[in-house]
Amino acid sequence: MGAVKGFMEHGRETPKGRDVKDRLKDWKEVYHEMPGIKYKDQGARCMECGVPFCQSNTGCPLGNMIPDWNDMVYRDRWEDALAYMSKTNNFPEFTGRVCPAPCEGACVLGITEPAVTIRNIEEKIAEEGFSRGLIKPSPPQKRTGKKIAIVGSGPAGLAAADQLNKVGHNVVVFEKDNRIGGLLMYGIPNFKLEKEIVLRRIDVMQKEGVEFKPNSHVGENVKIEDLQNDYDAVILCGGAQQPRDLPVEGRDLDGIHYAMDFLPQQTKRLQGDTIPEAEAITAKDKNVLIIGGGDTGSDCLGTSLRQGAKKVDQFELLPAPPESRAEGNPWPNWPQIYRVSSSHEEAIDEVRDFCVMTKKFSGKDGNVHKVHAVKIEFGDPDPKTGRPQINEIPNSEFELQVDLVLLAMGFLGPIRGGMIEQLGVDLDGRGNVACDKNKMTSVPGVFVAGDMTRGQSLIVWAIAEGREAARGVDEYLMGSTILPHSEFLSV
Amino acid sequence: MKYSGFPKKQGLYDPEFEKDSCGVGFVVHMDGKSSHQTVIDGLEILKKLEHRGACGSDPLTGDGAGILIQIPHKFFKKVSSDIGIDLPEKGQYGAGLIFLSQDQARRDASVKIFEGSLAVEDLKLLGWRDVPVDNTTIGVGAREVEPVMRQVFVGTTREMESDELERALFSVRKFTTHHIRDVGLNDDESFYLCSLSSKTFVYKGQLMCDQLETYFLDLKDPDMETALALAHSRYSTNTFPSWSRAQPFRMLAHNGEINTVRGNKNWMHARQAHFVAPLFKDIKKTFPVIKPGMSDSSDFDHALEMLYLGGRSLAHSVMMMIPEPWSFHQTMSQEKKDFYEFHASMMEPWDGPASIAFTDGEVIGAVLDRNGLRPSRYYVTKDRTVIMASEVGVLPVDEANIEYKGRLQPGKMFLVDLKEGRIIADEEIKSQICSQKPYGQWIKDKQINLEDLPTPSSTFKSDLETLSQRQKVFGYTVEDAKIILAPMVEKAMEATGSMGNDTPLAVMSEKPQLIFNYFKQLFAQVTNPAIDSIREMLVMSMEATLGKELNLLEESPDHCKKLKIQEAVLTYEEMEKIRRLDQPWFKSHTIDTLFLAAAGDEGLKKGVEHICQEASKAIENGATILILSDKKMDSENAPIPSLLATSAIHHHLLRETTRTDVGLVVETGEAREMMHFALLIGYGAGAIYPYLAYETIDKMIKDGVYVSGVDFDTAVKNFVTSTRKGLFKIIAKMGISTIRSYRGAQIFEAVGLNQSVIDRYFTGTPSRVEGIGLEAIAKESLIRHRRAFTESGVASQIMDLGGNYHWRRGEEKHMLNPDAVATLQHAVRSGDYQLYKKFSQVSDEINTRNCALRGLLKFKKTNPIPIDEVESVEEITKRFCTGAMSIGSISREAHETLAIAMNRLGGRSNTGEGGEDSVRYIPDANGDSRRSKIKQVASGRFGVTSYYLANADELQIKVAQGAKPGEGGQLPGHKVSEYIAKLRNSTPGVGLISPPPHHDIYSIEDLQQLIYDLHNGNPTADVSVKLVAEVGVGTVAAGVSKAHSDGVLIAGHDGGTGASPQTSIKHAGLPWELGLAETQQVLVLNDLRGRIRVQVDGQLKTGRDVVIGGILGADEFGFSTTALVSLGCILMRKCHLNTCSVGVATQNPELRKKFSGKPEYVVNQFRFIAQEVREIMADLGIRKFKDLIGRVELLDAEDAVDHWKQKGIDYANILHKPDVPEEIAIHHVTTQDHTNVREVLDKEIIEKAKPALESSEKVQLEFPIGNTNRTVGAQLSYQISKKHGEEGLPENTICIKFKGSAGQSFGAFLAPGVTFELSGDANDYVGKGLSGGNVIIYPPVESTIVPEENIIAGNVLLYGATAGKVYMRGIVGERFAVRNSGAHAVVEGVGDHGCEYMTGGLVVVLGRTGRNFAAGMSGGIAYVWDKNKEFEVNCNFGRVDLVPVEEDEDIETLKTMIQDHLKYTKSTVAQDVLNRWEEILPQFIKVYPREYRKVLEERKKKRMQESLEEVA
What residues of A are in contact with residue B793 (Cβ under 8 Å)? Predict the structure, then answer.
């Protein structure tokens, strides 16, 4: 046995972000460097539970072998740690940076003490893997001769591609944008995930034989029938890109944008692209309002601050979560508690306003000028929907002066036109692409993975989805497969 | 019920597992003077041993009693002439009592066969005699199957020597018996010859002791004369009348049990084929040597008879069968060692607790097993009579007439030779036998030691290149390396784990299993004791020989021409040495145990056939050692599972009768843990070379992962050491002490293998639910094999994680997985029944369904009723208990919370084995009570005092526990806090040991005695016995019911909360479904069910579990794991590390603060379960829970099971309902008869001691006492504890003088304020649980014996004593002051294992000690007068230091104790010591436990410092 008393001897230690003043000056990762942390001690804090909830369905969706690689880190066995990591997770360098880490919410130590720093250890294992040259191109020994097209190069598409390539299939990934990576490239700002990290992985995959086709928008400039004809199987990994709108008065005013129109532009600029003046959205010297209190909202905040916004506000419909777990939110469920993201650290004052409903926008010169909002409270659940009723608080109406409004209220599933329509795949009740347990859609030979079938979700889920679809495809093409199940999805 | 003999095998009942035990005694006149008085004395002995026997549901039907005497020639002459038979001279004819069938035709047919077989042996029929009997007093059950009693006289047709005549009679008896069976008559019922001899005669039957003389009218005839009488009173675990199982047998009477009997029988069967016996006309006619279907005692009798009639002396034959432990014996003569070593090449010991009295009519003797587990005491009188029995006091003897009082010692023999007219001492008999041949020279000349063979030139090399591939083929996982191998190689220790086993049975698992996992270890419970292989190492032996055996009936130098090995697990060098053997007698041949992977399951079948044929051929070609090797495994050839290969060849050769021509060595990549080695040996392997384990270890060391600080050679050495220790533990669990006896003994039960696999390859192994066949076994091997050879790329170089010990996503299923744990916690905390239903649904439909036998059962559709007609939640929760978890294993907080919850519910919580804080006996202010209703009495007896007993509603004797049946426990010093030490009467910081057996239960009649003790210790409390499911548990439960236990608990193998060795958690014990159903069936068959409550536990979680348990026969239900989960346990499985992060299973004060459980949670949990039970009852149309108990017709096996393995499971045996009349109860309806507890000497004492009890007035009393006055003092102590609490009365308030031979447990639990003075002697267990009272024993004034050379009291005295003083003027038996934690005692000599496991108190021994003194002694002090400077050899230095008595404090203590001894006993020894104090003092040795010394010295230092500081 390893460190039986590690958790009694060491406290939790996580990387400190760079100084706020410094980091607002650049676009580099907030936690870019992680000096000083004794990973051995942090690994030793893991109790190697008899029942590790971090792997359970409230924990890591990939079923990462967390206790085992923690133990390896404690024993300074980075290569083994990476090997166990690689069994379940194709891209620990991504999840180690941007996963909200439900594993830590389910960590058994978390019942009585701060949880084990699982995510940091994961990132470290990945980085050690790269820096020690352990993660290197290792193309398959044999090729099966089967060709697979993957539509979308986000985490689901990449995971599926990686798995399928490893078992010897020829994989081509089609990406509508000008760069590979999907959400990883354009959905997450650099200060959370530097694009070199994404490109580093793409490079490995390319060298292993995966072919990437950017600027290939299936359904637009690439015909889906061609893919069906030219390839032995197709996997749709197009994500859930239909944003939720806010249909209130004044919505058509200029200066009101979806977050996903705003965030990618910044990444493109940083990657050296030029954004035409007419399309450019920037927060510089503006009063910015972000509507939506989730991760995307935080990303808009961090980006706006770096762009030099005059002032930023953020509305959230729901009430502020409690500081610690509420009674109805027991361990090992995801702790719905008040969190301060790195972007919120960067804002000098609290920018968030909870229980706010946006009533309308009013403009000046065609541009948004004011937002009119009201405070609300939640009543008893509606007997029909089961959702709590929203009641406006009388006389709590207020206005704010705004120049730029960013809508970050989540996504409603895949974009329904184009490829999906052309294929004629069945959709489920929520408008996502339906599939069977092998991830095959109603169209034979066409599979689906990630947010496109699951709806808006986490990167880990997307990777799990991609792996499961790869398994389905391999079995479909070869009759059997040695690719592992992602247990969660089959339950 | 009327059974003629035993019922047939049915359901889970198998007569094979019937057990019996008993009291045994003999009386003999040394000069061979015959008299009728000897018969009368023999019968009197029986009556005095009545309490060691038993009776069944019918109080008049005994289990059997009998007497063996010399041929009463005078009487026979008289009665035969009356019926016209002219008897020849004494010794010229044979006679025997025969049980004949009640059926005329069968009787005639049998008699005809018998008469027809006489002529061949030159014998002739002299005539038959009807034996007059009076059956009016015997029980109905016995009478219904009473045989027709006849006696036969057989003469000779030519002159014969006495021995020749005996052989002829023997041959006829054997031949007739076998022939009768062969023609289809049940021999025991048609024709059972109690004996047929010219020297001895046996009267016996299904009788109670006092019925023997009234039944057999012959016995009253004054002409019935004999010089010896051997008597036996039987206690069987069943109530089935069986006249033939009564003892004595032809040559012996046995008290105890032979644990290795299955192997012994198999080996004997193989050996008989090689018998050459010129003394016999045709020895083959007498085969089989061992008649099938008889008891172990009978089997032993058969084997002994064969060896004896084969030409050896009786003593020699006995020495072969029950050798002393000789290998580590420091003082044994070389000659004797040579004798034993030589015979070890010929035969394995018959291992197990035994007191055997044997006779051929000319000599009579007795022998004790090597560990001295049965009592045997004797008196030699001045008028030349020897009385020997399980107890003293069995015959009235004038003390002045006694010349000597002795006891039989472990491994020692006692022999009275009537011709020579003297007792021959052990040393004399043995040295005479040992010197009859030059055994030492023979060994030197012929035997080869493995270590003496030339060292091979090659050295061990791992093939790291293909390692991970091969690991995959053999199913290695990271857990194997990390959990199993690491502690073995790093510390030479076995792996430890916690929280039981919640993974699927092998047959239910979706993962391919190693065939090892289909077997479960059996273990000793009640009918025989487990051995402590660590503390009683001296009896254990790993030595063995490999090679060809010769004719057992002869001996020659070549008989030991074999290879001797020291360890069962071989190193590389040792394996190579064997591989290279190539000369006549020592020739090895390697068989590749592989099969063609491409040929699938047919391939496996063919492969096995092929290796069996190859084995036969190799033997023909002169091989004496077969190496079964899977080393050549490759992509085309898959390995045959090593156990299958071994057992298949073993049984093939047994069938071919060539098995004893070869030894088997298994070279396999598969074996790596204790269980694997145990199985391979248990099915015939002589040695194992686990090459892949070594390679894996090599890799671990090279990588520096999981192990550090050892090099490869040390690692291998540690590995071998740990397997030796592990194997010892596994065999000791069954009470077996030598690996030679274990080899082929098949001490396992299979679960999930079908009958054809069993019959063909594992012949004789119980397997009761069918299961997979050879196809699935092949498939499991091939899945691994294929994967290993196809998988590449993705992580192919790393091992699978396993998930067998710990839950891991995607690996083996666990019933307590994250979902189950979290949902249950959420439900009980929120009080949300719907959430609980979510938990129970997942539990029942997924988790249990995938893991446990009950998963595949379903309720039959019946007529439902509205739920409000079903009895209430409150009624049902009364049936719930929490399991025995000691405060020590779990935190005080958790322990008390459980107690409060159970008391609120009207259920019962259990103290576990660590005692209970007496403050908890007083209710809390809010009305809650923290008192546990069930108080456990376990082998450590921690905290068991009169006061503790008095505060129980139920006293539970823990015989075994699910997580580690047959094993003891250890609480490491760091867990013994101040508080824990206080509760356990021990010293903080000093580790505590619970022995594997209860040292007062080595046998069923001992259990009866302990039950009796506890009933006396608290006459108002119920007593229950906790057993663990295994094949035969039903018969043990029947024995428990007959022993007047009010309850019996059947625990499943899978429960368990504390720490246990992994091999036990995973591989010992059986599912409760089997154990409970068997218990129910056997109790009902015996009509013993109605009077006993049956409880079940083991992974119970939901209402469905409870209802299925009820239907299979349980009245009550125990929960442990899930109750802890409700309190916050999250199955960390770290209980053994004291690092429980939620404060449940830890004593660490910081961690205990984190405990967040509340009684409400447990209350919610059990109310939810009860509510769910009600819902199911409503569906089943059952209003009262009792109405579903035992109603197996309400259950059905799930049909349409499509799982490739599960579909082979057959529930017919589990769902069997014995066909009994309606009036036979199938659930608990009545109470046990406790008349014998009400009618005791204590009643009179209590009456007369009233002034003391009521107003603490001093009382002095006197009583005569006899051996049937048992447990005297316990009820008196109960009264004191009830009235005066823990403190009791002031010293000497009640002083009682007794005179006579006190019965067992004299002064048990004696409370403070009582002093017992006994003039006479005492039996076993004096001062058991002594709680503050005093016991003084000395010989009567009229006695002329030299007290310090004579035995004054028996074995296992002061067991678990906590306080009080004891002075005994004489020598006492084995295991004196075992687990004493506070009593002070002075004795004048002790037997073996003195002061074993002692944790406190003071012992002075003014005389010799036996061997193994102070084994496991962790506290207290012993002062031994080492007059002859021999103590060092006899002391076990495991935990103690020996220091001179020099400190003032010590001298003072010692002197005072000796002075007191003198004062109370008038000991001349004490007087002498005190007279020569200065001279003798230096001869005293202080036995000082190391840990204890450290703690005391630290305390002293601290005290000094404190006083220095004060001064300063």
Answer: 138, 140-141, 166-167
